[in-house]
């Protein structure tokens, strides 16, 4: 009798345990789906309840959980954390899913081998303003043609803002990273634009679907993968061309690098040709994707706050170069407008994204299990009334009298990361977005008649692709000759 009841008890406990685990898993999956649709608001709600305490939310990927921290102590812990414990590289891999999006897998020691890339970016950053005439010439010639392909209404072109801005960022980033000839290759721009879209789409879908379905999704989206192959083959030819031209030359005799690819290729045998292409591909794709999102929102904010346009135009016309050369918001209104756009409408509500390689414990005792992600809640900083009075008001002149800049690094401006892991491409990022805005302001009268609200995907705020920018050339005769 005892054995009979014991067996039944064990069986019922096993069934209960199985049902409980299944229900728990179903709830987590429901919450993860909910996060995809309402993640930004879910973070706000949890943060309001938690105060300064860390909290977490169920997500797809990242070990099923994302942890959010927000205090100065947490910031310092993230800043000091060794890459062997908290890795930005592994977090980016989880986002872009290179196993499915790229031809070659990303090396897992990239956190430690990034200095050649940083040096190459810094080399070209120091020469950045040399690119302005070329970029403006490209815009003058090709952006005009692209705009004229859109339908017209009462002398205005009805331009899809997101499509135009993202295309412009592909052009600018290609010119700075790969060179003018590649930026003038229409097939590269078309395929590169499509390639960045494919990467983003696959990365998002693969985290949601069962693992066995991921390769199928990737193959359906990429089809024959012609876009990526064209981009990588072009990069390979450029690296080989540079190395053939400089083979046998001493460092002092090397012709000055004009692009980030050339600067990286010049760094000697420590990087193979394939490794140079690998790093350039990562930088080009991630920069093009992020500048595209920021530029759309930046243009949207400029033409939403039209009272700022006369002062912006006056600033651009008075500046000795385009965009205005000042890098602080104290004496550059455009800098202040970009800062407010990123502060109030940043496409990510968090920053300093890391994946735990091993369990990581913060100084307050909060632990991130291995495989899960942690990030800093930058929206709380951006909307802190103690830092920004009337924090929800778009006011680019709030920075007057300060030395604040959109490229600042620190807890006051978390977007670029912390410490030695801060984004080295932030100056190129800022420059690309501002030169595009300067071109539009100088050459077109624009209206944004019915701005549509952004939509959310996880923590991301995405400008609606249906936003139309009405554009009319300021010098009509010039643009019709």
TrEMBL record:
UniProt-annotated location(s): Membrane
Gene Ontology cellular-component terms listed: membrane
SUPFAM superfamilies assigned: Cytochrome P450 (SSF48264)
Residues involved in heme binding: 423
Keywords: Heme, Iron, Membrane, Metal-binding, Monooxygenase, Oxidoreductase, Transmembrane, Transmembrane helix
A Pfam short name: p450
Family, as annotated: Belongs to the cytochrome P450 family.
Protein name: Cytochrome P450
Organism of origin: Trematosphaeria pertusa
């Amino acid at each position: 009798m005892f054995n009979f009841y014991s067996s039944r008890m064990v069986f019922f406990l096993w069934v209960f345990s199985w049902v409980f685990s299944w229900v728990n898993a179903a709830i987590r999956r429901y919450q993860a789906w909910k996060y995809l649709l309402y993640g930004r608001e879910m973070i706000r709600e949890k943060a309001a309840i938690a105060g300064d305490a860390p909290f977490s939310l169920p997500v797809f990927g990242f070990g099923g959980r994302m942890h959010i921290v927000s205090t100065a102590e947490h910031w310092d812990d993230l800043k000091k954390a060794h890459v062997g414990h908290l890795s930005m590289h592994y977090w980016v891999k989880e986002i872009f899913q290179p196993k499915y999006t790229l031809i070659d897998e990303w090396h897992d020691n990239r956190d430690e081998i990034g200095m050649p890339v940083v040096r190459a970016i810094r080399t070209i950053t120091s020469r950045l303003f040399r690119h302005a005439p070329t970029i403006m010439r490209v815009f003058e010639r090709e952006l005009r043609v692209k705009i004229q392909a859109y339908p017209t209404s009462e002398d205005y072109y009805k331009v899809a803002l997101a499509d135009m801005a993202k295309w412009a960022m592909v052009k600018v980033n290609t010119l700075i990273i790969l060179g003018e000839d590649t930026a003038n290759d229409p097939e590269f721009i078309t395929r590169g634009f499509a390639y960045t879209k494919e990467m983003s789409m696959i990365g998002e879908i693969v985290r949601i679907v069962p693992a066995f379905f991921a390769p199928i999704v990737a193959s359906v989206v990429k089809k024959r993968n012609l876009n990526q192959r064209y981009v990588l083959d072009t990069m390979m030819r450029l690296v080989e061309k540079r190395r053939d031209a400089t083979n046998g030359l001493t460092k002092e005799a090397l012709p000055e690098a004009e692009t980030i690819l050339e600067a990286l290729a010049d760094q000697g045998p420590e990087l193979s040709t394939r490794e140079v292409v690998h790093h350039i591909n990562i930088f080009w794709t991630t920069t093009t994707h992020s500048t595209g999102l920021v530029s759309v929102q930046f243009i949207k904010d400029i033409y939403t706050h039209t009272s700022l346009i006369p002062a912006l135009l006056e600033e651009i016309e008075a500046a000795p170069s385009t965009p205005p050369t000042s890098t602080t918001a104290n004496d550059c209104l455009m800098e202040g407008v970009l800062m407010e756009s990123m502060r109030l409408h940043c496409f990510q509500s968090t920053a300093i994204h890391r994946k735990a390689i091993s369990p990581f414990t913060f100084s307050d005792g909060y632990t991130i299990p291995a495989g899960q992600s942690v990030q800093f809640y930058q929206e709380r900083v951006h909307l802190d009334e103690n830092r920004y009075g009337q924090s929800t008001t778009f006011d680019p002149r709030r920075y007057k009298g300060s030395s604040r800049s959109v490229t600042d690094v620190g807890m006051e401006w978390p977007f670029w990361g912390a410490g030695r892991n801060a984004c080295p491409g932030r100056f190129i990022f800022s420059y690309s977005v501002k030169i595009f805005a300067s071109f539009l302001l100088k050459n077109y009268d624009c209206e944004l008649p019915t701005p549509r609200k952004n939509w959310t995907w996880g923590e991301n705020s995405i400008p609606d692709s249906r936003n139309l920018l009405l554009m009319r050339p300021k010098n009509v005769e010039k643009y019709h000759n």
